[in-house]
């Protein structure tokens, strides 16, 4: 079966072998962090809850070095030194994504100046497990991951950080950013399907988890169960002790996380479209500009984001059965990337009697080509890629979310119960 899949992938990849790479859009999950949990033990980490660790910083630095090896040294796709007209680095406002972006761009374009960071996890983690990517162009050994140098001041001058205020790129589900979507999600979480899942987990999962974690199982819910899996994953990746659950419990925790991610927050088409709109609209603009040869269009775009952002893209572009049946789309490793590569090739147009430029897009997840459901293949024409995006973009998502804010403000106004209040109104 694997051989058949490989042959099918090769068949769909053949056109790209003879095409020119003209643009790469990467969206990556941040590097390894401390647990982002309702049960956090500060004594186990030097970092605060949910913050990037030095291991995560090292991951992102070497991810940047990997991209440099590919696109600067081997393919000569990018300039040897940073050029703002061809490289765009954007980050979510979260500290872990900002620091990930700073480390990444230092790996992509190493600086002589900077501060040395010593990776205290270097002796624990095997260098081959540092990154989840399938293709390694850059040799990584234990000595090289023990110490990295990062010029944070320079990196901050070239990284575009999307502000916390009205962040619809990566946090459209937050009430302060889009109350309308927040309300939809709250309604979904009260659905019959959610209630039935909670009943099942209260019997099959919560008592065992609570006993190990020394918690009251009545206080657990799906979101907290998902958080407990996060503790296990973070502590395990950093070589720290974590609760030892049996295989069935781990399986149920993973199922719970998948249910929360896809069945609840991304099952509604409106929710999915609003959450993805700002990002997808930029994908549309970047790829359209590269086709139309607009001056200073970036050839390389990198978004430092979250696993939840990646899940949105999976749910839009990939088959639902694939997402639910393969763990890698649910348990997304730190420093994972989704890549959209735009290729150009010349084809003979019989009607025009001349060669014309044809553009295509390929989607990869940690270097593995992905079958795009709307294209029925591993490669899409740029026109079809744009149709997929346009289908999932809310035309004026800012106004949609602003209207929700206005409505929320109106409904939250205190009731006017005295004469002075009524007169001034």
The shape, in one word, is: globular
- Counting DSSP H or I runs of 4 or more residues, the number of helices is 15
Supply the CATH class of the largest domain: Alpha Beta
Beta-strand segment tally? 10
Q: What is the overall pLDDT average?
A: 89
Describe what you observe in this structure.
The longest helix is centred in the middle third of the chain and has 23 residues, at 269-291. The protein contains 15 helices and 10 strands. The model is unreliable at 420-425 (pLDDT under 50). The protein is of the alpha/beta class and 425 residues long. Strands 1, 2, 5, 6, 7, 8, 9 and 10 form an 8-stranded mixed beta sheet that branches. The radius of gyration is 23 Å and the shape is globular. The protein has 2 domains: 19-172 and 278-392, 3-Layer(aba) Sandwich (Rossmann fold); 179-264.
How would you summarize what this structure contains?
The chain is α/β, with parallel strands linked by helices and 425 residues long. It is 46% helix and 14% strand. The protein has helices spanning 2-17, 54-74, 95-108, 152-158, 179-188, 192-204, 206-213, 222-237, 247-264, 269-291, 307-317, 320-325, 382-392, 397-411, 419-424; strands spanning 20-29, 87-91, 115-118, 147-150, 159-161, 300-305, 337-349, 354-365, 368-369, 380-381.
SSE arrangement:
Layout: H1 2-17, E1 20-29, H2 54-74, E2 87-91, H3 95-108, E3 115-118, E4 147-150, H4 152-158, E5 159-161, H5 179-188, H6 192-204, H7 206-213, H8 222-237, H9 247-264, H10 269-291, E6 300-305, H11 307-317, H12 320-325, E7 337-349, E8 354-365, E9 368-369, E10 380-381, H13 382-392, H14 397-411, H15 419-424
Parallel strand pairs: 1-6, 2-5, 2-6
Antiparallel strand pairs: 1-7, 3-4, 7-8, 8-9, 8-10
Helix pairs in contact: 2-3, 3-4, 8-9, 10-13
């Amino acid at each position: 079966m694997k051989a058949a899949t490989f042959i099918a992938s090769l068949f769909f990849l053949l056109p790209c072998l003879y095409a020119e790479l003209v643009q790469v859009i990467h969206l990556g999950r941040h590097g390894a962090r401390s647990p982002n949990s309702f049960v956090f033990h500060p004594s186990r980490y030097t970092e605060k809850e949910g913050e990037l660790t030095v291991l995560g910083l090292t991951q992102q630095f070497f991810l940047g070095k990997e991209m440099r090896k590919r696109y600067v040294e081997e393919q000569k796709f990018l300039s040897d030194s940073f050029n703002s007209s061809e490289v765009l680095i954007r980050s979510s406002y979260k500290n872990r994504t900002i620091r990930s972006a700073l480390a990444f761009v230092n790996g992509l374009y190493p600086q002589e100046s900077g501060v040395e960071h010593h990776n205290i996890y270097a002796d624990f983690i095997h260098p081959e497990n540092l990154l989840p990517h399938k293709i390694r162009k850059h040799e990584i050994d234990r000595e090289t991951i023990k110490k990295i140098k990062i010029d944070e001041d320079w990196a901050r001058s070239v990284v575009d950080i999307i502000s916390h205020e009205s962040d619809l790129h990566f946090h459209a589900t937050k009430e302060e950013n889009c109350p309308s979507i927040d309300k939809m999600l709250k309604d979904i979480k009260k659905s019959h399907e959610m209630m039935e899942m909670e009943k099942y987990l209260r019997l099959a999962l919560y008592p065992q988890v609570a006993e190990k974690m020394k918690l009251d199982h009545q206080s657990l819910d799906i979101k907290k169960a998902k958080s407990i899996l996060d503790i296990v994953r973070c502590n395990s990746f950093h070589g720290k002790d974590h609760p030892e659950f049996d295989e069935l419990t781990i399986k149920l925790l993973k199922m719970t996380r998948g249910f929360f991610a896809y069945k609840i927050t991304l099952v509604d088409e409106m929710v999915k479209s609003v959450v993805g709109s700002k990002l997808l609209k930029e994908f549309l603009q970047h790829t359209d500009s590269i086709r139309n040869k607009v001056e200073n269009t970036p050839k390389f775009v990198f978004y430092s984001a979250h696993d939840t952002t990646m899940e949105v893209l999976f749910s839009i572009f990939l088959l639902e059965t694939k997402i639910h049946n393969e763990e890698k789309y649910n348990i997304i490793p730190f420093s994972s990337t989704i890549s959209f590569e735009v290729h150009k090739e010349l084809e003979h147009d019989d009607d025009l009697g001349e060669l014309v430029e044809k553009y295509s897009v390929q989607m990869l997840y940690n270097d593995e080509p992905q079958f795009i459901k709307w294209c029925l293949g591993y490669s899409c024409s740029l026109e079809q890629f744009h149709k997929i995006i346009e289908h999932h973009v809310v035309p004026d998502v800012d106004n949609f979310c602003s209207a929700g804010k206005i409505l929320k403000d109106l409904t939250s106004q205190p009731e006017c119960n005295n004469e002075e209040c009524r007169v001034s109104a």
